[in-house]
Amino acid sequence: MAPARAGRSRPPVMADVARLAGVSHQTVSRVLNSHPNVKAQTRGSVLAAIAELGYRPNAAARTLVTRRTRTLGVVSFDTSLYGPASMLYGIERAAAHSYFVSIASLPALDRRSVLGAVDRFLDQGVEGIIVIAPKTSAVAACSRVRANVPLVAVGCGTHAPLTSAAVDNAAGAALATRYLLDLGHRTVHHIAGPASWVDAQERISGWREALAQAGAPEPELLSGDWGCPSGYRIGQRIAASPEVRAVFCGNDHMALGLIRALAEHGRRVPGDVSVVGFDDIPESAYFLPPLTTVRQDFGELGRRALATLIDMIDGHPPPVSCLRIAPHLVARASASAPGSRLGAVPRLPLGAAAEEREHP
Amino acid sequence: MAPARAGRSRPPVMADVARLAGVSHQTVSRVLNSHPNVKAQTRGSVLAAIAELGYRPNAAARTLVTRRTRTLGVVSFDTSLYGPASMLYGIERAAAHSYFVSIASLPALDRRSVLGAVDRFLDQGVEGIIVIAPKTSAVAACSRVRANVPLVAVGCGTHAPLTSAAVDNAAGAALATRYLLDLGHRTVHHIAGPASWVDAQERISGWREALAQAGAPEPELLSGDWGCPSGYRIGQRIAASPEVRAVFCGNDHMALGLIRALAEHGRRVPGDVSVVGFDDIPESAYFLPPLTTVRQDFGELGRRALATLIDMIDGHPPPVSCLRIAPHLVARASASAPGSRLGAVPRLPLGAAAEEREHP
DNA sequence: CAGCGGGATGTGAGCGGTAACAATTCTGGC
DNA sequence: GCCAGAATTGTTACCGCTCACATCCCGCTG
Fold it and tell me: Which of B325, B324, B342 has its CA nearest to residue B333?
C-alpha cells in the first residue's frame, strides 16, 4: 500500500488538540459536536487549538462509531446527456448541504451494470441510493436489489414497482398530440424512442390514447433511437409522403433531425409539416423554426427524488409509490394549422428570447 | 443521532464470519485481501461463511487503519451543461474501476464556493481533487488551496499556475479564424464568451493572432454570455451590417442564436454570412445549416486529468504543468467562400449523418 | 454546615478492521 | 529421526473517534 503522502508527518488528531488546549479529548469532541455543556472559555481555547493545528476531524473514525457516512450514491445512464445531467445536477444541488454524493455513470443500463454500481455503493457505505433508470432493464435490476438502505428510482416511468419519481410522459405525449389535433390536423405521426426505454413506451401510449380519444386514425409507429441522426433518417423516409402533416417526436433531438430532413426535401415547417418535440432542451427555442415542445423539469425531478430518499433515510415510510411530475407544453413556432403558409422566417417569440442560460 | 435502519439487527462483521468459518478474524482479513499464504481449503470455508452471512467489509473501519478512502472529489460548475457534464462523465468512467467519485456542482465559481467545495471534500477525506475550473475566479481559488492531497484543474486555460489539463483554445480559435480567412473572407468577426471565462479569453487571443498573422483588420469584439439568447441579440445588432460576412462564435450555442437572427433578417448562412462555432455539441451537425465548428474532446480532457491526478496520488510528480489537448475543425456547411450563393437546402454531409449517439 | 442537584469535565470501552509479531504446523535435507 | 525454515494461523495492539459513565466543583437548601 503506497501511502499517498509519504514524507509529511501525520495530520493532527483530536488528542493533539486536547493536549494543546489543556483539556481532554472528550471535551474537544463536545466542542466539535456543539454539545451544550461546555463553558464558553473552554470552547474558545479548544477552537483556538483547532485553528492553530489546522485540525480536521477524521471522517472514517467518526463513521466507524456513528455508523453514518452522510453519503448518497447516484447511479445514472451516461451523465453527459441532457436529461441525466440535469437530474444529477438537481440532486446534487439539493443534497450538498447535508450529504456527500457519489456517482456512477454507466455506459449501459443492463442488469449487471446497475447491480454492480449499486453494489459498489453498498461497499462504500452509502446511506441511500438514487437510480436514474430510464430503461426497463434498469427498473428490473432495481427491483431485484435487496439492500438495507433505501433506494429510489427516477425517470423510470410511473408504473415501476419502486419508490420513484417520474415525469408523466403519457400526459405529456397526450398534450403534444392533442395540441396538433386541435390545430386542425387529421392525425399525428409519432417518432418514438427505442422500445427499451420506459419514456418511449409511455409516450407512445399517451399518443395512442390521445389519438383514440379524438377518434383520429393511428398511423404506423416510427422508431428512432433518440439521436438526431435517427430523426433525420426517418425524416428522409417520410418527407415524400404528402399525408404526413403533423409529427410528434419523442424528443427534441429527433425533432431536429426530422426538421433538417424535411428542409432538404423542400417541405417547410410548420407550413407543410408541423413538428412537436419533447424535453425542451436549451437550444430548441433557437432552432429554425423555434421548436414547439413538451417541457419536463428534470431538475425538479431530481430534487423530489432526493427529498423522498432523505425522508426514507430518516425513517419515514415513502408517501407514495411514484411521485408524478406534470410536464407542460411550450408552444413556439414549429407547429401550426394544416393550411397555413409562412412567408419570411418568423420573428422569435419574445418569451423564448427572454430565457437566459449561461453555459460554455 | 437517529439511526438510519432502526429495527434491523446489526449487519455481520468480520468476527461473525471468523466464528462461522472456525478461523480467526485475521484469516478472514487475509482472504479478503487475497493474501498468498492461506490454504485453499481455509479460503473456501471463509468464502462460504462470507456468502452465507452476506458479509460486507466495513469501509470506514478499513479506511481508519489504512488511511485510504479510495475516493476522489470533482468540483465543477453547473454539471447540467454540456462541457462540464462531458468532462465529468469522462472522469467518472475512467475512475470507476479504482476510485469512488464524489461530486460538487456549483451554481457559481466564485472563490468562496470553490474553496467551500474543496473543504468539504477534504473533510470527507478524498485522496485527490479535480476542479473543472473554466473561470478565472476558480483558477485563482484553486491556486490558493493548500491541501495535503493532490489537486488538478481542468479546462482552466493553458497558462494557469496549476497542474492542469486544458484544450488549446487559442489554437482552436486560430484554426477557425484561419479557415474563414482561407475561404477568402477579408476579415472575421468574433462573438466571444464572457471575459470572466478563461476559454473566452484564450479564444479571443487566438482569433486576434490569426487575424494579425494574416494581416487582416481586427473588427470590434462582440461579447455574449455563451447562451443562445446572447448570440441571437448580437445577431440582431449585426445582421444589418453588410460588411459582416464571416463570424467566429465562441461556442455553438451563440452560433445557433446568431444564425437564427441572421435568418430573421433575410441573410443566408453561409451564402451571405459564414459562421463557425466552437465545441461541436451533438446537435450542431443538424442545425440549418449544419454547423462548421471546432471540436474539443471533453471526455478525453477528463480522462487525462484523472490519469494525472492518479499519478500524483501514487507519488509521481506531475509530468508537465499543463497538459494541452489539441482541438480540430469539423467542416460542415455553415461557412463558405464569400461570393457563393446557395440554392436549395444542402444535403447533410454523410460524415455527420453517420455520427451515432443515443440519448433521451 | 452537611447534603444535594446539576453543569462541566475526564475516563475507559469499544466501533470493525489491518499490521506486526508470535505460535504452530508442515516441509525437506541430512 | 531431527531440525532449519517456510507455510499457515492466531494474538495483540492500535487507527481516531463517540458513547456511557464516573468524577469534580459549584451554589443552594434544610
Answer: B342
Mean of the per-residue pLDDT values for chain B?
Answer: 90
Q: Which range among B268-272, B277-281, B347-351 has the greatest average pLDDT?
A: B277-281
> What is the per-residue pLDDT for A352?
38
Among A120, A254, A260, the residue to mutate for chain B (most B Cβ within 10 A):
A260
Distance from C-alpha of B117 to C-alpha of B103, rounded to nearest angstrom? 9
CA-based R_g, chain A, Å: 27
Q: Is the pLDDT of residue B360 over 70?
A: no
To the nearest 10°, report the CA torsion of B154, B155, B161, B164: 30
Q: Which stretches within B156-251 are classed as H helix?
A: 169-182, 198-213, 228-238
Pick out residues 62-81 of chain B having their CB under 7 A from any atom of nucleic acid strand D. 64-65
Q: Are B247 and B258 in contact (CB under 8 A)?
A: yes
Output the pLDDT for position B259. 96
Tens of pLDDT, residues A231-263: 999 999 999 999 999 999 999 999 999 999 999
pLDDT of B357: 32
> Which residues contact residue A178 at a Cβ distance below 8 angstroms, ignoring those fewer than 6 apart?
A210, A214
Contacts with B283 from chain A: Cβ below 8 Å: 228, 253, 256, 281, 283
Amino acid letter for position A31: V
Instruction: Determine the 3-state secondary structure of A71 from DSSP.
Output: strand
* Locus of grid cell 440535469: A86
Mean pLDDT across A337-344: 66
* Residue A96 grid coordinates: 450538498
Identity of the residue in B60, B263, B354 whose CB atom sits nearest the CB atom of A288: B263
Q: Distance between CA B345 and CA A322 in Å, rounded?
A: 46
Task: Strand D proximity: list residues 28-47 of B with CB under 7 Å.
Answer: 30, 36-39, 41-42
Q: Give the helix/strand (H/E) hosting A48.
A: helix A40-53
| Phi/psi of residue B39, nearest 5 degrees | -65, 140
Answer whether 0.85 is exceeded by the pTM.
yes
Query: Are A126 and A73 spatial neighbours (Cβ–Cβ below 8 Å)?
Result: yes
List the single range of A25-34, A117-126, B16-25, B152-161 with lowest mean pLDDT.
B152-161
- Per-residue pLDDT tens over the stretch A131-159: 998 999 999 999 888 888 999 999 888 87
Determine which helix (DSSP H) or strand (DSSP E) holds A328, and give its type and residue range: strand A328-330
Asked if B114 and A125 count as a contact pair (C-beta separation under 8 A), the reply is no
In the numeric block, which cell numbers belong to residue A14? 483530536
User: What is the residue whose three cell numbers read 465559481?
Assistant: B109
Strands (E) located in chain A: 71-77, 100-106, 128-132, 151-154, 164-167, 189-192, 222-223, 246-249, 274-279, 292-295, 322-325, 328-330
> In sequence order, what are the beta bridge partners of A324?
A166
Residue B35: nearest nucleotide (C-alpha to C1'): D8
Q: What is the largest CA-CA distance in chain A?
A: 88
DSSP per-residue string spanning A19-47: HHHTS-HHHHHHHHTT-S-S-HHHHHHHH
CB B360 within 8 A of CB A84: yes
Q: What are phi and psi of B323, to 5 degrees?
A: -90, 115
| Residue that wins the pLDDT comparison between A279 and B8 | A279
Q: Position A24: which residue type?
A: S
> For strand C, which nucleotides have at least one atom less than 7 Å from a protein CB?
7-12, 14-20
Rounded CA separation B296/A144 (Å):
40
What residue has cell string 489554437?
B171
**What backbone phi and psi angles, to 5 degrees, belong to B4?**
-65, -50
Mean pLDDT of A39-58: 94
Query: A81 and B360 in contact by Cβ < 8 A?
Result: yes
Asked if B229 and A349 count as a contact pair (C-beta separation under 8 A), the reply is no
